[in-house]
Amino acid sequence: MGNKSSSVQQPLDSFSHWNDLPPELKSACIKHLDFKTRLLLRSTSRAERALVDSQKFNLEHVQIKGLLPYPVNALIPTGFDGQKLTIVPSSDAKTAIVIRIRNLTRFFETVLPLLVFILTRSVINEFSVEGVVLKNPELLFFVSRLGPITKSIYMDGNTCNKFPIEDLINNDIVTNARMVRIRDLTCKDAVWKLAEKWIENDSVIGTTFQVTSVHGHSIPHFVQKFRDRIIFENHEEVRITTNNPSKHILLKLARRWRVSRPLTCVVISSYMKKEEYESFGHWVSKKVMPIWEYLSFVFTDDFHEDDGLNCYSFIILIFHCLWLIITLNKTLKVNKFIIFLEAFSEQIPEVNKKDDAASDDRNTLLE
Amino acid sequence: MAPKKNSAKRPQPSTPKPSAPARIVKVQSSDGHILQADVRALLLSSTLAATIKGYDDENKPLEKLEVNNVVGFTLKLVLEWCEKHKEDDPAIAQAEKDKKNIFIPSWDRHFLTKLPMGNLFDLITAAYHLDITGLINYGCKTVANSAKGKSTEEMRELFGIPEPWEQPSTSTATWDD
Fold first, then answer.
1. Residues in domain F-box (chain A) (predicted)?
2. Where is A85: in which H helix or E strand?
3. What is the CA radius of gyration of chain B?
4. Helix H segments across chain B?
5. Would you give the end-to-end CA distance of chain B in angstroms?
6. Which end of chain B offers a freer environment for a tag, N or C, measured as fewer CB atoms within 10 Å?
7. Chain A contacts of B72, Cβ < 8 Å?
8. Which CATH superfamily is domain B24-164 in?
9. What pLDDT, on the 0 to 100 scale, is given for residue A186?
10. Which of B152, B85, B66 lies closest to A42 in space, CA to CA?
11. For residue A209, which of A254, A267, A264, A169 has the smallest C-alpha distance?
12. Predicted TM-score (pTM) of this structure
């Protein structure tokens, strides 16, 4: 009905362009863009870049991961010249964008600006850095740029003594995250220090810290620190009170492996019963098993089903490593190769030292 | 896009009200074209609704509404859209305003995607001036959908964004600052 009273022709001079739209409408259009299109529109002009940058957007998961799979990357840690950046904009995994970085030039020219854009303009639900040796200030560079809404942060300590755990624990984004997981952490005091922050901040129930380490001193240190708060204690579990009567903190040995001690520390309800937290160790799988666990089979003959791996796992790992050595790109540093070989010639303690030395030259990477 | 999934979440339009006799008014575009429209359709525009309310409050006879910032061709499209949606609950459009993922019904999708990009820009600009939330939502979503999968160059061409050397700024930097 209606508009039939006159025949209206399209005027020749009414053809609008994007640049004719009011900024509010442009922003309304950008709001509906997916991550990739947003990124491409951003590079069309300065005005569009400013408009895109004026809006926050959500990303489900951002992961910086060494090109080598875990746990091989614990022996051959990669820097920024051998990693892949995975961006999952939504819960649909098909939308994932994977960028492989094989040299530093590409990292600095393409990936670093992209990372800065992502970290400053997006709200990231899950952030993870794995298999890349990042030290202060590199790791803090990423973590400090995460928004306060970030729920999960996954990091890799790589048994590196210079992992900036102290700075991370003092960072509000880390202490407020619902889930923090650090793999292969050497620091013995990280658990109680983070728990202390949780008590101070009255963190919500469910706040979790998962950590794998190569020593078993975390529980005794935790007990010693919170001696006056202890409700229950044995060699695998410690439950303490917090300042809030409705909340307790539970530290639980998630699994007893040969050398490593994966732990779960979680804020629980004070009404929670022991049976309810039996499942808290289920996050521990072969995927988080440190290389030392594999290597421990070199020095022993007895394998138990309970170990979660057997001699075949070790043989598979050896073949996997050999395949990686053959297929590794030309940028593989010779010193990393030597580190790898030395580890197999029973000089495991040396690895950490060389590890640190090899990555010293990356200290100023982001400065 | 997953229309079926989203459609389940989308608030359903309220049941159509018993049809009152249509009240037709004339609407004049900026280039002098006179069109006719049902008042219920015009009420989707907050701007026109305020004008109509002003007439009704003063008991003045409403003979012709002047829309000075929209040309006839675009106004015809606006009125066609409003006519189709005159039974809709305005709360739906308001609820969708801040959502990123909105579902565009098939009639609207067909109506908006058949338009050349220039006309679509004209249409959403008109919707913006007339403050028609639903049309702005669907129009902007259609623009965003049309850009999906395009390269930077294709996007420049589609949207008529000038090349960097044609832009006022002398810098062509996009990443590095």
1. 21-61
2. strand A83-88
3. 19
4. 3-9, 39-42, 46-57, 72-84, 90-96, 106-113, 117-130, 133-147, 152-159
5. 34
6. C
7. 6, 8-9, 11
8. Potassium Channel Kv1.1; Chain A (3.30.710.10)
9. 79
10. B152
11. A264
12. 0.69
Place of tokens 């850095």: A129
Q: Is A159 left (phi over 0), alpha (psi -120 to 50) or beta?
A: left
Residues from chain A that touch B35, judged by Cβ atoms under 8 A, are 2-3, 5-6, 8
What are A's interface residues with B at a Cβ cutoff of 8 A?
A: 1-6, 8-11, 14-22, 24-25, 28-34, 37, 40-49, 109-110, 113-114
- Cα end-to-end span (Å), chain A: 67
Contacts of A107 in chain B (CB under 8 A): none
Count CA atoms within 13 Å of residue B105 on its CB side. 15
Q: What is the DSSP letter of A76?
A: S
ipTM of the complex: 0.80
SS3 A100: strand
Q: B66: which strand partners?
A: B28
Mean pLDDT (whole number) for A344-366: 36
Q: Which helix (H) or strand (E) holds A103?
A: none
Angle at which helix A218-225 crosses helix A190-201, to 10 degrees, equals 40
**Smallest Cβ distance to A15: which of B33, B100, B118?**
B118
Which residue type sits at A336?
K
CB contact under 8 A, B22 and A28: no
What are phi and psi for residue A249, nearest 5 degrees?
A: -120, 130
Is the pLDDT at A166 greater than 80? The verdict is yes
Could you give the CA distance from residue A199 to residue A177 in angstroms, rounded to a whole number? 14
A89 upstream amide cis, omega within 30 of 0: no
CA of A60 vs chain B CAs: smallest distance (Å)? 15
- By C-alpha distance, which of A289, A285, A279 is closest to A252? A279
Task: Select the residue of B33, B38, B73 nearest A14 (Cβ to Cβ).
Answer: B73
The two tokens of residue A154 are 């996954």
Tokens of A268: 């629980």
Q: What are the domain boundaries of chain B? A: 24-164
- Per-residue DSSP letters for A232-271? EE-SSEEEEE-SSTTEEEEEEE----SS---EEEEEEETT
Beta carbons of A2 and B38 less than 8 Å apart: yes
Nearest to A44 among B144, B155, B175 (CB): B155
Q: Which of A66-70, A105-109, A125-129 has the highest mean pLDDT?
A: A125-129
Residue B140 has its nearest CB partner, among A3, A32, A41, at A32
Q: Do B38 and A11 touch (CB under 8 A)?
A: no
